[in-house]
Amino acid sequence: MSNKTMELAKKIKKFNNQVLSNLENLKEVLDVIDKIRSGSEMLGNDIDKIINISNKLDSITQEQEKIVHDIKGLKGLAISLEHFSKIQTKFNKELGELLIEIVKEYNKNQR
Predict the structure, then answer these.
(1) What does pTM read for this prediction?
(2) Neighbour count for residue 36 (Cβ, 10 Å)
(3) Taking CA 102 as the corner, what is the angle to CA 101 and CA 106, rounded to the nearest 5 degrees?
(4) Burial per residue of 74-109, b for 16 or more beta-carbon CB atoms within 10 angstroms, e otherwise
(5) What is the pLDDT of residues 63-73, one digit of tens each?
């Protein structure tokens, strides 16, 4: 009877060790999930900021285009401003695309 009790106690101890090991693994997984979630929240905030910046840049570009149109009578100045506006629009677009690419890479790295 004591042999069976000892065997049962060993089996229970082995089972408990397995359960504890699994719980430790689960804790590590949950910690990683928490880090991913917080990283995703930061990423979401960063994306919102990028969108706001992009919208402001678009608004600025539109205002510049209106200004350029209003001073068309002054050819030299109008030509210079129009060229500047196109360069800035191109730069804004490329900057926006690069920022989006950075966010995508950051998101991939967080997974």
Answers:
(1) 0.45
(2) 13
(3) 115
(4) eeeebeebbeebeeebeebeeebeebeeeeeeeeee
(5) 988 877 776 66
